[in-house]
Amino acid sequence: MHSVLPEQPYNTLIATITSTYDQGRLRAVQAVNVQLLETYWQIGQHIVEFEQAGSAKAGYGKSLIKQLATDLTLRFGKGFSRSNLVYMRQLYKYYPKSQKPSHQLSWSHYVELLKIDNALERGFYEKQAINERWSVPELKRQKDTALFLRLAASTDKEGILRLAQQGQLVGQPADLLREPYVFEFLKIPEPYRVSELQLETLLCDHLQQFLLELGKGFTYVGRQYRITINNTHYKVDLVFYHRILRCFVLIDLKINEVQHHDIGQMNLYLGYFANEENVEGDNPPIGIILSRHKDELLVEYATYQMNSQLFVQKYQLYLPNVEELRRELELTLQEAEE
Question: What is the CA radius of gyration of the chain?
Fold first, then answer.
């Protein structure tokens, strides 16, 4: 049976209703999340105030959470496990009235954040999750790869405090950098034996995770991007465009140590993109050479008086040593206090 309704106006009506329904459902989820966070914060407040008032005697106080979990689960069902009650208590203790949790994140986000003891780290991941709209799995991944510690390792005390209070703000090319970049999501078995082309292919096959590691603002343009100069063809491994800095970002991958001619070649690419690919409104391109190893002195000499938009950064295929990074952070903070 054929519809007697005009097709185009009817399709528009369907699209309008769909949009209205999706927006309403999203607002409903957000409203539930706001109320859930507020409720859990208040439950945490009740538990802490009960403890502080001395209502829980020594013996009973140690088993308070366990007893509450049993009684509240019998009364309300799921949602009041011992671990959940511990997190509710922490939510109140870590986020007093003047610093209540953000309604832009879910309870599941905050469960992950509450697992972080260090206030600086927790503050960074909270701000960054809001700024970059991380899902819970994305937040977990960034915690596991020690993003905060990697960024903090290359800055001073003031920079570390800014990271904790604001997250990573991108305002200049150097703000894009991480040391090292971590590609654990490729799951390359150790000891690894991959070529540069294979590594590039794997990164493109895992583009979503790669973009997450690169950070906010990157959009993919292409791989093996061909440029021609005087009938000679060259290929840039990976090309992105950064929406915030409004510029191309060129990435070359090296499985061995960077050589001086690799830096010269990247500078050539930058010159070409600046003159041949940029359009009105674009800023100068940025070049990043990603290498497994880096000779700092060679890089210093090879980039002498060269384009300040060219960077050589290390990457690794496995998770970083978190304890070593944490010791570096503590050392930086201690030195600043002396």
Answer: 26
